[in-house]
Design a protein that fits this description.
Length: 468
């Protein structure tokens, strides 16, 4: 009893002595990635710290109650502005810590323009393994994927060097603050945050880098959103200065795509959904959160290539259209399928080519498309995608035209929003109602383990046993 009280008091005093709270900002305005949208913070900050994301122009960012700023090399199409450079210098002078994770490349990433002011250059020379930590990092093993070395003025202190003694991570003082610069490959990258490499030394390093600036944890530390919002018909389009040049072209594509999706599905987007379109500073895809879809500004080589953008916008919009119940098994493939149907209606030959290529990949795994159950936990991804397209094409051929619209209308009419789930059995029940035919045996013939007994959405009187 005495012992446990003693331990308790130890814990309390340790917690009270715990120094320094971090308020960090992970920047996704220079380049959006899912990793920088919260995963870096999960991997390298403590639970007591607080990270927010900057989605707006970096040059406008309010850093008054932040002490750590996390930056990447940035998207080549979004230069670091003069105002952004000044923000960073002022923040450092005030005692803030800045981490820049970047590698040299041809052409160089935009962060180069910031680094020049601090006497650092990203080289294109590959860092050679093994890496070696210096000083405090010397005790730690270093995990490293790959990347390049740094060229540094004497103001810098190398913290990690490669096998040829070239710096890979370094720090320097700027005013009262600390600037850290390191190769991207020293840090995690997975969107599911499952690779917190080097956390044992990165966490204390970040803590020390921002120690000269104290924040007030009782005051708000809020994310900064993209600063421009423009009404375009029923849609609010959101962007910042760096994505502004793309916003109008993306809205043009959206306006072309939307009527096709309306016709393909036979319904409007689910109530309250698809109200906002955010332009993301990336060529790497998009997402949908229901009410908002987010679209990578340079996806698939846009604006030079138009088809990939048609497919992406239709894909993300479809995620909003299928709600309130996401589709089982094929929620991702149906989104791309509707993108392809949209492209086909817009006379874009890439649509049919891409669909056929994916069906061929499924046939390579399951030649008649009858053997592998897409509902199985170990069903290959290519099989699920290709078989989905094949099934929808067959449904259109047998029960069309416009069978997809009948499906969406029937789903809206018979599946209330409050229903707790929507399974593949339910889905085939709705397809059966939509086509007026018991489709359970047909789906079973293509390997789907669906069962009319496991859904209450298909009346048993018409479930294929009316003669019994
Ligand atoms: Zn998706």
């Amino acid at each position: 009893m005495i012992l446990s009280l003693f331990l308790l008091s130890m814990c309390v005093s340790t917690a009270a002595a715990s120094p320094h709270r971090i308020h960090s900002v992970s920047d996704i305005s220079q380049e959006f990635t899912f990793y920088m949208d919260g995963r870096f913070a999960r991997q390298y900050l403590r639970q007591s710290d607080r990270d927010v994301r900057n989605w707006g122009s970096l040059g406008n960012l309010d850093l008054s109650n932040a002490n750590l700023l996390i930056l990447t090399g940035g998207n080549p199409r979004v230069p670091y502005t003069k105002a952004a450079g000044e923000r960073i210098v002022n923040f450092l002078n005030d005692g803030g810590g800045v981490l820049i994770m970047a590698d040299g490349s041809d052409p160089m990433p935009p962060a180069t323009s910031i680094l020049t002011n601090f006497g650092a250059t990203l080289k294109t020379t590959r860092a050679s393994k093994p890496l070696k930590g210096l000083n405090a990092i010397g005790e730690h093993d270093i995990t490293y994927r790959r990347g390049t070395t740094l060229q540094l003025s004497p103001d810098w202190t190398p913290l990690i060097v490669d096998a040829a003694a070239q710096p890979v991570l370094a720090q320097r003082s700027v005013g009262k603050g600390t600037l850290l610069l390191g190769s991207r490959g020293l840090f995690g990258q997975k969107p599911d945050a499952s690779d917190p490499i080097n956390a044992d030394w990165i966490q204390p390093l970040l803590n020390q880098a921002c120690a000269a600036k104290t924040i007030d944890p009782s005051k708000p530390h809020r994310r900064t959103w993209a600063e421009h919002a423009q009404q375009s018909g029923p849609l609010i389009v959101e962007y910042h200065d760096g994505t502004q040049p793309m916003a109008a072209a993306i809205v043009d594509v959206y306006e072309d795509v939307r009527p096709h999706l309306r016709e393909i599905t036979g319904v409007e987007p689910a109530p309250g959904m698809l109200k906002r379109l955010l332009v993301l500073p990336t060529g790497g895809g998009g997402f949908s959160s229901g009410a908002r879809i987010a679209i990578g500004a340079w996806w698939g080589g846009f604006p030079e290539n138009r088809y990939p953008m048609v497919e992406l916008i239709a894909h993300e919009a479809t995620h909003s259209w299928v709600l309130p119940h996401p589709e089982p098994v094929w929620n991702e493939p149906i989104a791309t399928y509707l993108g392809m149907l949209t492209g086909r209606r817009m006379q874009m030959p890439e649509a049919s080519q891409r669909m056929q290529a994916q069906i061929d990949k499924a046939r390579a795994l399951d030649p008649d498309l009858t053997a592998i159950d897409p509902m199985a936990a170990d069903a290959p991804r290519h099989l699920i995608w290709g078989k989905t397209y094949f099934i929808f094409e067959q449904l259109e051929a047998k029960h069309g035209p416009g069978v997809m619209a009948k499906y969406f209308q029937t789903k809206r009419a018979h599946v209330p929003a409050a229903r707790p789930n929507y399974t593949m059995h339910d889905c085939v029940a709705i397809w059966s109602r939509a086509t007026g035919e018991d489709l359970f045996p047909w789906f079973q013939s293509y390997g789907f383990a669906v069962d009319a007994e496991q859904t209450d959405l298909y009346p048993t009187s018409t479930a294929g046993n009316t003669n019994k």
